[in-house]
Design a protein that fits this description.
Layout (H helix, E strand, L loop, with lengths): L4 E5 L17 H4 L9 H10 L4 E4 L3 E3 L26 E7 L10 H14 L3 E6 L3 E3 L32 E2 L17 E2 L17 E3 L8 H16 L3 E4 L7 H14 L4 E4 L7 H6 L5 E3 L1 H12 L6 H10 L6 E4 L21 H9 L5 E4 L30 H12 L5 H14 L1 H4 L2 H4 L1 E4 L15 E7 L4 E7 L5 E7 L1 H6 L8 E7 L3 E6 L3
Parallel strand pairs: 1-2, 1-14, 2-5, 5-10, 10-11, 11-12, 12-13, 13-14
Antiparallel strand pairs: 3-4, 6-9, 7-8, 15-16, 16-17, 17-20, 18-19
Helix pairs in contact: 4-5, 7-8, 9-11
């Protein structure tokens, strides 16, 4: 089995061919992608050209939006971020967004066909599980499967009690940071703040769920939601902001789901490195974001705020948890590498990409468009010019339109985009001819090459990958100039990697700027 490669895609933006979107435009003006846009050609591209194993469909579950659509009413814009709304402000856990369907009244059938299409392509499906909060308009209309909404039996005369699904502020009306006529009394606590008066930087459009650190009816209701999607054929879940939910719930829930649906994968969005062991070893997660580890380390190096030495320090701090980190350079929360806010040029990403992909056996995630250097330098509306591809607005991304055209016609990409895509494909397919990259051991060579000719420990990173049948030497160059380095392979590496040599030896490697060099060591 090869390395796990996750491709995150926002169906709202995929396949939207509107070539002149308006900032803050409506759905009618700017259009959107559909489930059907993720067609056989798209899935074949992911599987065959990018070596993807899992597709994370982001923004599928029905969320709050300012647009009335197919019997689903518009939500008061005072409690919606952007005209399209946040995919993480859920209004019905048992429904999918009608705007993603060609026939909105058959939207669940169309989603199930997307699941089948994805599985038939040899790919697994991940989707979001948002356990911490819901939209302020949650449960007010159109619940799809007739299940009583969360909070239906709450006693809202008390701030908290174990049987309540939400937290209340009796006698206090909600005070929102933006003007409008939305009224809520008693106010409910926001997703990230216990207050009847959330600020502009808070998740003011959401309501926080009450779990407790012991079993409550809320636990049962949230388990049923996960079970519902598993029964549809979903293979795993990216679980949102899990540190805001008691870990005891996840231990209870993941055990039950895995017993009923063996092989279900749980990926946790965890930011506090001190909590990694807790969520991996006790809460039942298979993988965790390593945003606060490798991502932050690589970003600091690229931005000349940190040293390549920190890559060593990061893996040493992780120990045996390292293979269970989900590595990435981009996702919907982070700024695009090629944006003016980060690396500025996707050509500079290949040193970071080589480390993230092949320094260890950990899975890797690609954010759609990353492989053609999408810059996210549009001012789409609510999202603004921030180096992130909007998740809040109806929008159409030029590079994604060109990529979609390339997939379906073989044309459309610029020469620059085609070069970036070729570089991604080369790296992603290395394991096809070098299986040690998906199953082999790792040896960090930096400690014994600090003074080696041409080696800069602040801008270079060197490591071995091997499985006994072959050994590969990688040298990653984070500097803006080409480098020629001499790498010493010490006795410890020879023994550990089972290299068939008797004495330490040197290897000369030429490495392009902001890229990597790979040498297959002679047996």
């Amino acid at each position: 089995m090869g390395k796990m490669i996750v491709y995150q895609i926002l169906p709202r933006l995929w396949g939207n061919d509107c070539d002149h979107p308006f900032p803050c435009g409506s759905l009618e003006e700017n259009g959107c992608g559909r489930f059907s846009s993720v067609d056989e050609a798209t899935l074949r591209y992911l599987k065959e050209e990018l070596n993807v194993t899992h597709v994370w469909y982001t923004g599928v579950i029905r969320h709050a939006t300012t647009e009335p659509y197919a019997g689903c009413p518009a939500v008061n814009p005072q409690v919606v971020k952007g005209r399209a709304g946040s995919p993480y402000a859920i209004v019905d856990y048992y429904d999918v967004n009608p705007y993603l369907a060609d026939n909105p009244l058959e939207r669940m059938d169309e989603f199930e066909f997307l699941l089948k299409r994805t599985h038939d392509a040899g790919l697994k499906v991940l989707m979001d599980f948002v356990p911490n909060h819901v939209s302020r308009s949650y449960g007010k209309s159109g619940l799809c499967n007739g299940v009583a909404p969360l909070g239906a039996s709450d006693d809202c005369t008390v701030h908290w009690q174990p049987g309540n699904d939400f937290f209340y502020y009796p006698g206090q009306a909600l005070s929102l940071p933006l003007p409008g006529n939305y009224y809520e009394n008693p106010a409910k606590a926001s997703g990230n703040r216990f207050s009847p008066s959330p600020g502009i930087d808070d998740w003011y459009e959401t309501i926080r769920l009450n779990y407790c650190d012991f079993h409550t009816p809320t636990w049962d209701r949230m388990l049923d939601i996960v079970r519902y999607w598993c029964s549809k054929g979903v293979d795993g879940f990216r679980c949102d902001m899990v540190e805001m939910v008691p870990w005891q719930f996840f231990r209870w829930m993941t055990a039950r789901i895995k017993a009923e649906f063996p092989g279900t994968c749980f990926i946790g969005e965890v930011y506090e490195k001190g909590n990694y062991s807790l969520y991996l070893n006790q809460a039942g997660f298979d993988y965790l974001y390593d945003k606060s580890g490798l991502y932050d380390t690589l970003r600091a190096i690229v931005e000349n705020r940190g040293s390549a030495r920190c890559i060593t320090w990061n893996w040493q701090s992780l120990g045996d948890m390292q293979p269970r980190m989900l590595n990435f350079l981009e996702n919907h929360d982070e700024q695009r590498f090629a944006s003016d806010c980060f690396g500025r040029d996707a050509k500079r990403s290949f040193a970071s990409l080589a480390v993230s992909l092949y320094f260890n056996q950990a899975p890797f995630m690609i954010y759609f468009g990353e492989e053609v250097g999408e810059r996210a330098m549009d001012s789409e509306g609510f999202s603004g010019l921030d180096g992130r591809t909007t998740i809040f607005d109806w929008w159409s991304v030029p590079s994604l339109r060109r990529l979609y055209g390339h997939i379906h016609t073989g044309q459309g990409l610029s020469g620059y985009e085609d070069g970036i895509l070729s570089g991604f494909k080369r790296l992603l397919h290395l394991e096809d001819t070098h299986p040690a990259l998906s199953r082999g051991a790792t040896f960090d060579l930096c400690y014994c090459n600090m003074s080696s000719p041409g080696f800069d420990p602040d801008r270079h990173f060197a490591f071995l990958r091997g499985d006994g049948s072959e050994t590969l030497l990688f040298v990653c160059n984070f500097s803006p100039v080409d480098s020629s380095v001499r790498i010493t392979i010490p006795r410890e590496a020879i023994d550990f990697m089972h290299i068939k040599r008797t004495e330490p030896f040197d290897v000369n490697v030429s490495v392009p700027s902001d890229s990597f060099g790979m040498v297959v060591l002679p047996v």
